[in-house]
TrEMBL record:
Name of the protein described by the UniProt record: Benzoate/H(+) symporter BenE family transporter
Record key words, sorted: Membrane, Transmembrane, Transmembrane helix
Database matches in NCBIfam families: benE
Region (Disordered): 1-24
GO MF entries: benzoate transmembrane transporter activity
Top-rank taxon, per record: Bacteria
CC terms in the record's Gene Ontology section: plasma membrane
Provenance organism: Leekyejoonella antrihumi
Transmembrane regions: 41-66, 78-97, 121-146, 153-171, 177-194, 201-218, 238-258, 279-301, 321-345, 352-374, 386-415
Amino acid sequence: MTDQSSAIVETGAPLPGAADPGPRDADRRGLLTALLHDMSVSAWLAGLIAVVVAFAGPSVIILQAASAGHLTAAQTTSWLWAIGVGSGVLCLGLSLWTRTPAIAAWSTPGSALLVTSIDHFSYATVIGAYLVSALAVVFVGISGWFGRLMRAIPAPLVSAMLAGILLPFCIDAVSGSGGHLVVPGAAVLGYLVGKRISDRWSVPLALACGVLAAVLAGRLHTAGLAVGLAQPHWTTPAFSLSAVIGIGLPLFIVTMTAQNAAGVAVSRSFGYDCDDRRLITATGVASLVFAPFGSHGLNLSSITAAICSGPTAHPDPRRRYVAGVACGVFYILVGTFASVLTAVFTDLPPGLIATVAGLALLGALIGSLGASLADTTRCEPALITFLATASGLTLLGVGSAFWGLVLGGAAEIVLNRRRAPRETRE
């Protein structure tokens, strides 16, 4: 690798004149040949870790929302099937299409929003609100408004927002043990040993050591699980203005600001020049397709994207798209066996999931912090963005990632906006 490409791997940020991380060489080969050539164990493990992280925690929020909305077992399983298969199709298709680790997921803030609002409406009108939100995402993607807005935001502020998103997960690596230190301690030990050997194996070894410790400590119980395929359940949508305002509009806002904006930021922070119009539009179309089966919204991911886009997936940025392909395959498997695999992921000790997620994101946090503070003229706006995002601030139902950019952008305007020269009279 050249010095420049090594710098991309270490910092997660592109350098001026650095090679495009997109694997252009692979474009000259057939799709299958290129994929087989670029395969790596570390990329597949990164995809697996991303799916475990995505399902182990956020799936519990979905189960809470399903309980609050009095959904049947068939509707709940269909919801899990829709977000799993839908996310998998997007990851698989977009990663192969763009030859970058294009990682999709479902809206976690959106599912949290539903916990307190889904029971106010009939399930058919909730599905209708999902469709309206998805249509709005498609419109924004096709129009290109989202891309123009993202390009107007200074790069240090975007990196600071990413750092603010990642910080709580890295803190949870320490504080999320719940007083049980054996399992997360084994994961940390595995990470350090793997780090000493090679960056590529640090996170996989952390997960393996943590799972082994959980088994030996008797904290992993899978007895009595019934194997069966998830059955998608169609719900004919109905439309209600109150449901659109109460669910559709807030869901659209949090999806675009807290999810898609962060997802694009993650991809660009690792040097990938992603086509936001193509990606956003694709997530909107997929949301339309899977909404009648219960999916509340599919979007670009930030946390799991950082896992699949970093050097632990592969030292060569051009070959990390395989992690996106692997993520898609595992998502589809989880969706297909939603009831079984979700129970397994939920049964993993919470401290283990928090620890592995935090360890997997340490490199991305270091890179984004460095990039956010590299421009000395923008340190204060970047720091404000970082602190506001990390605070978890929520106003008007909109998450902290959006408000971090708003506050940081305001500081940027006040501190760095050029004053117009005064006109002098002759």
